[in-house]
Design brief:
- Helices cover 9% and strands 38% of the residues.
- With 236 residues, it is mainly beta.
- A hairpin with a 2-residue loop joins strand 16 and strand 17 (219-221).
């Protein structure tokens, strides 16, 4: 069966990952991990050189290291990792609502956490450590300071890499589903779409590049029909 599509694309379709599933997640359980306006230098799902970005990159207030970082929700520290590259100094807090929050590139941890990390580093005779404290070892209250914003690991400027994951499976979720308010008045610019065609079993058969034409604010159009031999299609 041959299916022909005229495709009209609005910016709303491309921002479903930002707003479309907010009702599935609690929007009042978490608070901002910083005490200033949320301004982002990176968003969830961005395509990086070798991975998709799994969280939000929150800018420092004045562009320098040192902003205090706070727990977004109560819980306990489930993992602490110190590494030269990657996330640098990173803290994982498991929460009773089934989610885990992640705070990466920290300059330092709070005194209690820092003392525990240093003790383990000496014990293991290693700067790089990957620690899993017990549930009772380091409990955390919401809005408790847990560290200081930094530039450790693979970071090229002072910021906090912040994630929220399903604790079961450690699957990352867009933190903006949880009620965080971030000002954004600039519409994305669509330069190219990649269309995928699948068979009935879900195997990808082919891809096609298309270049939408700007029609009006937030609306693009593909002027020529695109023919597919199968009904299952997707785009990115």
């Amino acid at each position: 069966m041959r299916v022909s599509f005229y495709i009209l694309i609005s910016v709303a379709l491309l921002t479903l990952s930002m707003t479309g599933h907010g009702s599935k997640y609690p929007t009042s359980d978490f608070v901002s991990p910083v005490n200033h306006e949320l301004k982002l230098s990176g968003t969830f799902g961005e395509l990086r050189s070798n991975h998709f970005h799994a969280g939000l990159d929150i800018k420092s207030e004045n562009g320098v290291v040192g902003d205090p970082i706070f727990a977004a929700c109560q819980g306990f520290v489930s993992r602490i990792k110190v590494e030269e590259y990657g996330y640098g100094n990173v803290l994982y807090i498991e929460h009773p609502n089934g989610f885990t929050s992640v705070y990466a590139h920290l300059e330092s941890f709070s005194p209690e956490i820092e003392a525990y990390v240093v003790s383990e580093q000496y014990k293991r005779k290693s700067f790089e450590v990957d620690l899993y404290p017990s549930r009772e070892q380091i409990t955390i209250q919401q809005k408790q300071q847990i560290g200081v914003m930094g530039i450790t690991g693979s970071s090229f400027g002072a910021h906090l890499h912040f994630e929220i994951r399903h604790t079961n499976g450690q699957i990352p979720i867009n933190p903006l589903h949880f009620g965080f308010q971030v000002g954004d008045e600039k519409s994305p610019v669509i330069q190219e779409l990649l269309l995928y065609e699948f068979d009935a079993s879900g195997m990808m058969l082919r891809t096609k590049e298309v270049y939408p034409k700007y029609k009006s604010k937030g609306v693009y159009v593909i002027e020529q029909p695109i023919e597919f031999l199968n009904e299952k299609i997707a785009f990115s």
